[in-house]
Amino acid sequence: MLNRNILKIDKVNAFSSATAYVAQYKKEHPQRDVISLGIGDVSKPIVKPIIEAMHKAVDDLADMSSFHGYGGYYGLPELRQAIIDNDYPQFGFTIDEVYVSDGTKSDCTNILELFDINSRILMADPTYPIYRNRCYALSRDVYFTPLDEKYQMVIPEEHYDVIFICSPSNPVGNAMTYDVLEKWVSYAVRENAYIIYDNVYEAFISSPDVPKSIYEIPEARKCAIELRSFSKRASFTGLRCSYFILPKEIDTVLFKERTINRFNGASYVAQVGALASFLPESRELLRKNIETYKENIHFLKKSFEEMGFEVTGGVDSPYIWVKNRENISSFEYFHKILNEINVIIVPGAIFGPHGEGYFRVSGLGTIENSRRAVERFQRYYEESH
Ligand code: PLP
Question: I need a labelling partner for 257 at 20 to 30 A (CA). Which of 99, 165, 209, 344 fits?
Fold first, then answer.
């Protein structure tokens, strides 16, 4: 029998249906200049010190004395050590608590193998849709919690076993402050629950009251697994490298056993590249890239606010979450904006029923395109209202 749960997802309100609509539109109107503010990929190439290190890594593979084959199930020890030294120097983690992998998209639900099949799994609505869709495919018990008026996940009264938290958030673009996150950690400790903390946009955090890591809350070591990726911070979206921290207070045995039987390790070349991202010369270049994306999203946030939209996010993340100006569904609004001004936005319903009435805008594209898209929005609203 085939696993039909894979199709349990809402195909109407899916990324794939938005992508198909755009493809059809471009096919029918090849002469139109379509600009995407929907882009979830990065637009900056990989910086030179990382590229040079990877060239050398490729040469290593050509020589028997430096060849790397099977065996690195949890990642290169020097990369795991560099992650601790650079990203978590204050927490005293050891490399046994670091797992290197091939992307947070896989990690965020592969980690569910650590938890009992009957676990009650909670996530936000709206959510990064991969958590939801993969839980359906894996026949897991999924529950949703809405956002409050400050766009923060509402802490439930009931018991849940596993909680997905995405901070800084995709899609909403805001981040959890220390106070809010502390409440979630207290909930998890009280309920014997675990938090899967998706922190892939950590490089964008600049607000002083937003923790860079959940482990800044001491009790989080008992209940939180933090996931990070080199995708957005170092343009590894095509290369693939990620990691997560599984503190020894949670597990030292199960996930190692699982991983030996499940995963033959991340690509050697990608891991050498990830290691080179910690070089001082790389860090400076990567910091500048993130700054550019942040300037871009600040510009977009300000522009949509000036046009009278209600906007959240865009301070500690590359996304803003914008309320539709018109009383139509998020997909109708997406169709309308594409047809009227040839700009792509992401309809909020993709992220869950409570995303209805909103759309997501990304600052990961270029500032030139953002300026041109904003001009089109301004003209459209001047002319039509
Ligand atoms: N988690 C979130 C919240 C994301 O937005 C994304 C990508 O957009 C990912 C995970 C995927 O990251 P990776 O490229 O490491 O698979």
Answer: 165
Distance CA 363, CA 359 (A): 14
Pocket test for ligand 1, best of 15, 100, 104 (most atoms within 8 A of CB): 104
Which part of the chain is CATH 3.90.1150.10? 4-46+282-384
Check: CB of residue 232 under 8 Å from CB of residue 277. Answer: no
Q: 231 in ligand 1 pocket by Cβ < 6 Å?
A: yes
Ligand 1 within 6 A of CB of 101: no
Rounded-to-integer distance, Cα 202 and Cα 242, Å: 13
Residue 172, ligand 1, Cβ within 6 A: no
Ligand 1 atom with the smallest distance to the CA of 105 is 16
Q: Is 166 in the pocket of ligand 1 (CB under 6 A)?
A: yes
pLDDT (tens place) for every residue of the chain, 385 residues total: 999 998 888 877 888 999 999 999 999 999 999 999 998 899 999 999 999 999 999 999 999 999 999 879 999 999 999 999 999 999 999 999 999 999 999 999 999 999 999 999 999 999 999 999 999 999 999 999 999 999 999 999 999 999 999 999 999 999 999 999 999 999 999 999 999 999 999 999 999 999 999 999 999 999 999 999 999 999 999 999 999 999 999 999 999 999 999 999 999 999 999 999 999 999 999 999 999 999 999 999 999 999 999 999 999 999 999 999 889 999 999 999 999 999 999 999 999 999 999 999 999 999 999 999 999 999 999 887 6
Q: Does domain 4-46+282-384 have CATH number 3.40.1190.10?
A: no
**Does ligand 1 come within 6 angstroms of the Cβ of 229?**
yes
Ligand 1 centre and the CA of 237: distance in Å?
9
The Cα 276–Cα 289 span in angstroms is: 16
* Termini Cα distance of the chain: 55
Element (H, E) at 253: none
CA of 104 to the centre of ligand 1 (A): 5
